[in-house]
Amino acid sequence: MKVEGLELIAPRSGDAGEFLRLVEASRPYHEGLVEPPASRESFAAYVRRSKGPSHAGFLVWSEDRLIAAVNLNNIVRGALDSASVGYYRLGDGGTRESLRSAVSAVVGHGFDSLGLHRLEANIQPSNTRSRELAESLGFRLEGLAVEYLRVGGQWQDHERWALLAHEWKA
Question: Which residue ranges in the chain fall short of pLDDT 70?
Answer without folding.
Answer: 93, 170
